[in-house]
Design a protein that fits this description.
The protein has helices at 2-44, 47-70, 102-130, 132-145, 153-170, 173-176, 179-192, 199-221, 230-266, and strands at 74-79, 92-96. The chain is mainly alpha-helical.
Amino acid sequence: MTFLIQLLAKSFIETVYISGMIILVGLLLGVLRNSSIRNFQRSFGSKALMITGLIGVPIHELSHAFFAVLFGHKVDKIKLLQKPDKNGVMGYVQHSYNQGSIYQQIGNFFIGIAPIFGGVFSIIALMRFTIPQAYNRFIYILAESLNITALNKGTMEGILNSYRELVKIIFSLKNFENPYFYLFLFISICISSHISLSYADIKGASKGLGIIFLITVILNALNLSKYIFAVDLIKYNVLLTGVLIIAVILSAITFLLSLIFTGIKMH
């Protein structure tokens, strides 16, 4: 009985270690997104949702579709953009899969969280062409993170300082003289406003997460998890955190701008 409890506890911790940061950031993005949309609607009315959705919603839905295809799911129907229905839905992807396939079941998790990564990589690509100096700095930070072999106070402070410098580069005076910077800012706001996960996304992702947990239990029971080195998991989490930080930074900026517009509207 003790072995079973230890096995389940170890597997649960490892599953959290793999997916916890994604879930945590997903919830934070949801809070920022809802607050930003609410502020934009106060400032510009209901049309604000459609303006940001024109770019943000198709990227959100295409991200779902891309991962659905990647994991062998059949995309039955896709709606890239529509006026919000009674539940606030502006787009959707309907997909089906073989429930006997473990690979396709695991895919549910990645399909559910896909908009976070689809949105972030779209913003990074946009950064490459509009503010290349910031893009180069971001790539440098990711490359440097591959050298991290232990997580401690020093490395965490180093990571945070790196991204603090990245924000300074993005909002440097030089960039405010660059017309492409404003294009980057507008499109990033549109994407960030729709990067978070819906209830349906979270529900779908939870199906895949359950399978990931069961696989982890099996690997630990067979003592095969020892082949996954702790250093590799650290690098995975550092790289993942780096990508997710971009989403949080831009969503936070979007939220701050929405507050500014609300303040201007009230005065």
